[in-house]
Amino acid sequence: MKTFFDLQKEVVERGLCHRCGGCVSLCTAVNYGALELGPDGHPRYKDVDRCIECGLCHAACPENPELEAETRQRLAWSAPIGRILGIRVARALDPQVRQQATDGGVVTALLLHLLDTGHIDGAIVARQTGPFHREPTLAVRREEILEGAGFHFDTTHSMVGLGREYAHRHGLDLVSPKILKGLHRVALVGTPCQIHAFRRLETLGVMPSESVALCLGLFCSGNFAFGEEERARLAEAGGFSWADVVKINVKDTFQVHLRSGDVIELDLHILDTMKHPACHYCQDYAAEVADISFGGIGAPEGWTTVVSRTPKGRAAFLDTLGHTVEEYDRTGQPDLADRVLEQLMRASAAKRRHAQAFREQMTRGASTRR
Ligand SMILES: Cc1cc2nc3c(=O)[nH]c(=O)nc-3n(C[C@H](O)[C@H](O)[C@H](O)COP(=O)(O)OP(=O)(O)OC[C@H]3O[C@@H](n4cnc5c(N)ncnc54)[C@H](O)[C@@H]3O)c2cc1C
């Protein structure tokens, strides 16, 4: 089994590390916490004596292609954006869920239904801990799942802060046996990178991956750090005050919803400098290896696009219809799913192109340094 020393030699020292924190996150989840992110965002040993040489850090690295191929095969991934069993547009039946939610509240409504019907006994969601602060949390009660509804970003842009917290923010340390405390049917909600890292654990058959019953992926253009300076810049560009903002959202534009009901739309490029460094290398927009993927793109305002990817995901979603979720009336729009798919493919291709350009730059830089 390869160790962190190999990862250091093959990836970090060659300048190929994306600073995604996946290695540290898995080490924290499964090992004794031998790794941490340093001030520059690169992984390093926190305490070499705690390392059990399990090789998970190496296996988690997106620069390691072996597990990726196996993972994709296991999940019947197919080009260009993963397996698709069905595309629907839906929203939560409960107006309170819709009001708190990012789009149509389907993720929250699905989790509530799964909990009510005993299909899950908890869910890993993100909890808002301040206006621009989030924390991954294990929700085991309805109220906790409801509290998690909505769109949550990070605040810190500093690598020192990320070094301390990003592995934790990744959320995978919550899949630790210590935290799951014997729960065996937990749903994991996460961005594509989080779902990918978890699927690699599953491919390796590493405890406690069997505790996760369902992977709910979110479409993702990137995760952003909303520090003070960045917020001021956005407010100036959009001509609004943060005191008037009731909701922000990322679809094909960056949307700022104001108390007055107005929605200000800014080009997504304005967020580029606020992206987490690792997001520039991520090729997955549509959460391609989740059981179900969700996003706002393609759906009318207040509705969620739902892509079922595995039989388990499709069955779970269909079971919610008429209970906590309603489907968009497609009368007169028989091609709705096709149009949604087209938008999704376009957004996915754009993200992939961006990532490939960054990767080429990184590889060129690495070979110049050698
Ligand atoms: C960083 C980020 C970027 C996104 N980019 C896009 C995009 O470019 N295009 C697009 O169409 N959709 C994007 N989405 C997805 C979209 O914002 C909604 O999450 C999705 O449409 C589901 O909406 P909903 O109303 O059904 O979910 P809700 O019912 O509001 O539930 C959302 C769930 O996601 C969890 N969550 C929120 N933030 C995070 C986070 N940072 N990490 C892990 N879990 C989290 C919440 O705890 C909650 O359980 C993005 C989401 C995130 C978090």
From TrEMBL:
A Pfam family assignment: FrhB_FdhB_N
SUPFAM superfamilies in UniProt: 4Fe-4S ferredoxins
KW Metal-binding (keyword) present: yes
Assigned keywords, A-Z: Iron, Iron-sulfur, Metal-binding, Oxidoreductase
Entry's Gene Ontology molecular function annotations: iron-sulfur cluster binding; metal ion binding; oxidoreductase activity, acting on CH or CH2 groups, with an iron-sulfur protein as acceptor
Residue ranges of domain 4Fe-4S ferredoxin-type in the record: 8-40, 41-70
Obligatory cofactor(s): FAD
Spans through the membrane: none
Keyword Cytoplasm: no
Domain of life: Bacteria
Identification of the protein by name: Coenzyme F420 hydrogenase subunit beta
UniProt organism field: Desulfacinum hydrothermale DSM 13146
